[in-house]
């Protein structure tokens, strides 16, 4: 594990992409503060530039350095982080400008000791978009990942992803109200019960 973390952090520091197993799906990750790395990621995924990239953080302290937390966002994060909840929040710290064409970014703290250790050692947020070409189905199989990304991504970390794994639930709470953009690993009922 230490060997993997060291290699991944080195690649991220060179603005290179990596594929990592998370608590939901495989993620395609780069340094979220590097415009060069983010631009490369858009190219690798064939993703439209207007489709913002989500970000992973490893702590509340780190999240609060880069994002504005209103009361509702803090309540949701304290209950469901770390885990499959992505919050759309207003940006306040200096992340790569090309992550999003708006002032809002999707952010999540994954329930993955590997991801946490990587971000802690790297010291900065990383992107957390799914490791698949844009518009294609999610990839659960390591061999398929290798075939898809072997010429584009220098480090692809193997890991167990459940075939029935759900993506994270995505909520825009940037205006202190709840707007569901995707229901995934956390049910709508669980969210509404907490905030009612």
Query: Any idea what the shape is?
Result: globular
Report how far apart the termini are.
Answer: 42 Å
Give unreliable regions as ranges.
none
CATH architecture: Alpha-Beta Complex
How much of the sequence lies in strands comes to 15-25%
Give the CATH superfamily.
DHBP synthase
Tell me the total number of β-strands: 11
What is the percent of helical residues? Answer: 25-40%
SSE string: HEEHEHEHEEHEEHEEEH
Structural class: alpha/beta
Structural write-up:
It catalyses: L-threonine + hydrogencarbonate + ATP = L-threonylcarbamoyladenylate + diphosphate + H2O. Its EC number is 2.7.7.87. Keywords: ATP-binding, Cytoplasm, Nucleotide-binding, Nucleotidyltransferase, Transferase, tRNA processing. It is a single chain. A hairpin with a 6-residue loop joins strand 10 and strand 11 (179-182). With 196 residues, the chain is of the alpha/beta class. The model has no long low-confidence stretch (mean pLDDT 93). It has helices at 2-13, 35-45, 60-66, 71-80, 113-122, 142-149, 188-195; strands spanning 18-21, 26-29, 55-56, 67-68, 85-91, 104-108, 126-127, 129-130, 155-156, 169-172, 179-182. Strands 3, 4, 5, 6, 7, 10 and 11 form a seven-stranded mixed beta sheet that branches. A four-stranded mixed beta sheet has the order 8-2-1-9. The protein is globular. It has a single domain (2-195), classed as DHBP synthase, CATH 3.90.870.10.
């Amino acid at each position: 594990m230490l060997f993997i973390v060291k290699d991944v952090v080195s690649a991220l520091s060179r603005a290179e992409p990596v594929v990592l197993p998370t608590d939901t799906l495989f993620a395609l990750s780069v340094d979220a503060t590097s415009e060069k790395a983010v631009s490369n990621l858009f190219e690798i995924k064939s993703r439209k530039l207007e489709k913002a990239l989500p970000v992973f953080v490893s702590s509340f302290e780190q999240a609060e350095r880069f994002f504005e937390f209103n009361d509702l966002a803090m309540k949701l994060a304290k209950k469901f982080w770390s885990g499959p909840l992505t919050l759309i929040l207003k940006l306040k710290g200096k992340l790569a400008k090309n992550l999003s064409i708006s002032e809002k970014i999707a952010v999540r703290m994954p329930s993955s000791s590997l991801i946490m250790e990587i971000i802690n050692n790297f010291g900065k947020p990383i992107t957390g978009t799914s490791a698949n070409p844009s518009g294609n189905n999610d990839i659960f199989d390591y061999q398929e990942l290798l075939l898809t990304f072997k010429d584009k991504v220098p480090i692809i970390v193997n890991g167990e992803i459940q075939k029935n794994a759900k993506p994270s639930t995505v909520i825009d709470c940037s205006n202190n109200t709840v707007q569901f953009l995707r229901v995934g690993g956390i049910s709508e009922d669980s969210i509404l019960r907490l905030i009612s």
